[in-house]
Amino acid sequence: MDETTREMFSPHNLPLEMMEEILLRLPVKSLTRFKCVCSSWRSLISETLFALKHALILETSKATTSTKSPYGVITTSRYHLKSCCIHSLYNESTVYVSEHDGELLGRDYYQVVGTCHGLVCFHVDYDKSLYLWNPTIKLQQRLSSSDLETSDDECVVTYGFGYDESEDDYKVVALLQQRHQVKIETKIYSTRQKLWRSNTSFPSGVVVADKSRSGIYINGTLNWAATSSSSSWTIISYDMSRDEFKELPGPVCCGRGCFTMTLGDLRGCLSMVCYCKGANADVWVMKEFGEVYSWSKLLSIPGLTDFVRPLWISDGLVVLLEFRSGLALYNCSNGRFHYPVSNSISGCRDAKVYLKTMVSPNDL
Q1: Residues in Cβ contact with 338 at an 8 Å cutoff, skipping those fewer than 6 apart
Q2: Edge-to-edge strands of the sheet including 119-124?
Q3: Less packed terminus of the chain by CB within 10 Å, N or C?
Q4: Same domain, yes or no, for 241 and 160?
Q5: Cα separation of 206 and 234, whole Å?
Q6: What is the pLDDT of residues 11-43, one digit of tens each?
Q7: Are residues 26 and 158 in the same domain?
Q8: Is residue 44 located within the same domain as residue 74?
Q9: What is the pTM for the complete model shown?
């Protein structure tokens, strides 16, 4: 490259808008390096708004299982937090697994509440507090005043974590239920206001089906599998911008002998696994969130009656599944399973897909 061309593409000669558009489409690793190019780039890349824009662009990118995929999987197993790349799971014979125990609070019981824009929200057992952590840039922050006061040990708490775009606020939703009682009390934590408040819109007669499973964040909503007095299975959905709960019907199959169901996030779509008549597990996706007619059966896995949840699906219809014993790949075309990380990540209690971003928990 001659001097004239090099000067033309110098950071100082690029219009600010063009420079930002280019940088927004780069992976985190590149952005971290490019902070050292010049002071204007460092200032731009360090902005909170830039990090959020970058995360939103990555979420809509077409990269799935290629080397450019910005997605990873984080799992908890007893007292350990581990992660690996989606690309590695699908394409490498030996999956590289990162252990994050030393980056956090030491040896303790972690419950992953949810992920959003690269932030992982988790609940720590010993101080009953909530933390936000970005595993990509290795920053964490305890949420001030997030320890939730409960009346006694008989209260079961089910969490969910997501982003309220209308208020530019990351929020945690807590569903509190006394054992052997139906009534559910709901509280909402705002990371912007640093406090809990009550919400009274939870429908009566609805019970969360699996209280150990966190809410699934989809399009500004949090969703839990539930049962109600009016129907055997339903979905309870919390709209973060409207601050209200409502019921969403599942696919038609739920009225034909399903004995349980599991919700998930499958590349931005709400997914549901129905265990039909004890013979197979049907995986459904809601292609347009909130539209009942958009439920579509993606695949059926014969012989599965235990817990399973799809985490990711490739363009070639190879599905990453979470079992109680670990992660597995299921090829829809030939019906075969492959266990790429059986020795590295086993006994998964709750796996979550997260986006590799520069959103800092310290900026909230």
Answers
A1: 328, 329, 330, 331
A2: 110-116, 119-124, 129-134, 139-142
A3: N
A4: yes
A5: 9
A6: 566 788 888 999 999 999 999 999 988 888 899
A7: no
A8: no
A9: 0.89
